[in-house]
Amino acid sequence: MNEFIDCNGYKVQFFDETEEINDAIKHVLIICKFKEKWLLTNHKSRGWEFPGGKVEKGETLEEAANREVWEETGAILKNLTTIGTYKVYDAKGTFSKKVFFGVVDHIESTGNYLETNGPVLIDEHQLQQERFQRNYSFIMKDQVLDICLAKLNTKKGVY
Fold first, then answer.
1. 49 beta partners
2. Within 13 Å of residue 15, how many CA atoms lie on the same side as its CB?
3. Which of 13, 23, 27, 113 would give a disulfide with 96, using CB separation of 3.0 to 4.6 Å?
4. What is the dihedral of CA 56, 43, 67, 124, to 10 degrees?
C-alpha cells in the first residue's frame, strides 16, 4: 500500500491489484490508450482527465468502466485490466475507486458526451510534461497517476 496527501490535502491510500480492501467500491477510473496516444476526456468543469465515474446500481466495476469510457469519449475498449484501488479520506468521508487500464479498439462520434466535451488524445510527452497545467483536472496531478503509470511500465506488452 502507498499512502500520500493529495493536492486537495486529503489522505489517499493506493492498493495494488493483489491487495484487497473491504470497502464497497462505487467509482472507477480508466487510464486509456488508443494506438500510441493516451485517451482523456475534457470534463466541463474539471478539465482534461482520464474517463471515470460512479458505478450504477446493478453494474459490475468492469461494466461501469466500459460505460464511462463510452459515455465520455465514444471509445470502445478491446481490453480492460485492473491496476489497483485507491481510497480517499475527504471532508465528506471516504470513498474507494477501482483503477483500470483500457486499450481502445476504436472511437466513435456520439454527438453527446454527457458531462464532458468529448475525447482528447495526447502523447506521452504531453502527459508527462503538461499534466500539471491549468487545463488538466486535479485528478491528473496527484500520485495515483504516478503509481499507475509506473505499474503499467513494469508490465511488458500491456500498452
1. 41
2. 15
3. 23
4. -130
**Cα dist from 77 to 37, 49, 71, 86, whole Å:** 14, 17, 12, 22
Alpha-carbon distances of 124 from 33, 127, 142, rounded to whole Å: 10, 5, 17
* 82 touches 17 (CB < 8 A): yes
C-alpha distances out from residue 42 to 72, 85, 117, 119, 126, Å: 8, 23, 5, 6, 15
Helix (H, G, I), strand (E, B) or coil at 25: coil
Q: Return the half-sphere exposure (C-beta side, CA atoms, 13 A cut-off) of residue 13.
A: 11
Report the predicted TM-score, pTM, of the whole model to 2 decimal places. Answer: 0.94
Read off φ and ψ for residue 92, nearest 5 degrees. -90, -5
Determine the pLDDT at residue 46.
Answer: 94
The 10s digit of each residue's pLDDT in 48-60 is: 999 999 999 999 9
